[in-house]
Amino acid sequence: MSEDPVREWILSGGKATQITKTSSVGGGCINLATRYDTDAGSFFVKTNRSIGPSMFEAEALGLGAMYETRAIRVPKPFKVGPLPTGGSYIIMEFIQFGNSRGSQSILGRKLAEMHKAGKSEKGFGFDVNNTIGSTPQINTWSLDWIQFYGEHRLGYQLKLALDQYGDSTIYEKGQRLVKSMGPLFENVAIEPCLLHGDLWSGNISSDNNGEPVILDPACYYGHNEAEFGMSWCAGFGGSFYNAYFEVTPKQPGFEKRRDLYMLYHYLNHYNLFGSGYRSSSMSIIDDYLRMLNA
């Protein structure tokens, strides 16, 4: 293995003849991020010294799937591999961000266009498991959305809370909700569509032209409404939803299902960051159990 596989790829696969500058970029708390400036343009590189290539391979597959829809701007992934000292790297297109998050209405329209363009014939899931934050996200294919969401989204997080905190209350009540949530989906046609999967404000930006850019995905094929599960920390306004629903009309019962999709992310925050998120998770579960007489 090359002593510096990132540099080697940039000077071969990246078609650069020289690297003129490298600079550190804010890349979140999990990975180290670096910008490589070259005579063939700039590249964005994330490295992780402790995790093998599987996490970045999953990210590259998600970015690639979104990129292929040609609906919304995402960084194009180029190369994933292991580092000689342990860990892994991903090289992708460098996008110069603008000064704002861009237009909410353009983001809503382009996101809906991505959902319409990104379809799956395998059902709900993804070709690989990935991560939501640093939590494993299980993407085993299923033809039944309610089963998929109940088992691989809510069920997985509930079991994590039980194992991690011994929280049998949230586990048992949550399982009651999973078993009784079917009526929330009556008269709804659910098609698997490509989701970013972790759409909060930190993963939304805009380029120099003001066009929206989304990054750091946790992609899978699911119900389009699940994309709004992080809306409590994404800042989506009325113009976002109006533009989205012009492209993909709102389905019956949308408002009733909103909190169900937020619950997955509240539970994940509970498992990642502790008890500050327990009461929000619990109140959503209790509200649904009352609504469904479960």
Automatic annotation (TrEMBL):
Subcellular localization, as worded in the UniProt entry: Plastid, Chloroplast
Record's catalysed reaction(s): N(6)-D-ribulosyl-L-lysyl-[protein] + ATP = N(6)-(3-O-phospho-D-ribulosyl)-L-lysyl-[protein] + ADP + H(+); N(6)-(D-erythrulosyl)-L-lysyl-[protein] + ATP = N(6)-(3-O-phospho-D-erythrulosyl)-L-lysyl-[protein] + ADP + H(+)
A Gene Ontology molecular function term of the record: protein-ribulosamine 3-kinase activity
GO annotations of cellular component type: chloroplast
Gene3D superfamilies: 3.90.1200.10, Phosphorylase Kinase, domain 1
Chief location: plastid
Highest taxon in the source lineage: Eukaryota
Record field: transmembrane: none
Family that this chain belongs to: Belongs to the fructosamine kinase family.
PANTHER family recorded: FRUCTOSAMINE 3 KINASE-RELATED PROTEIN, PROTEIN-RIBULOSAMINE 3-KINASE
Function noted in UniProt: Initiates a process leading to the deglycation of proteins. Phosphorylates low-molecular-mass and protein-bound erythrulosamines and ribulosamines, but not fructosamines or psicosamines, on the third carbon of the sugar moiety. Protein-bound erythrulosamine 3-phosphates and ribulosamine 3-phosphates are unstable and decompose under physiological conditions.
Name of the protein in question: Protein-ribulosamine 3-kinase, chloroplastic
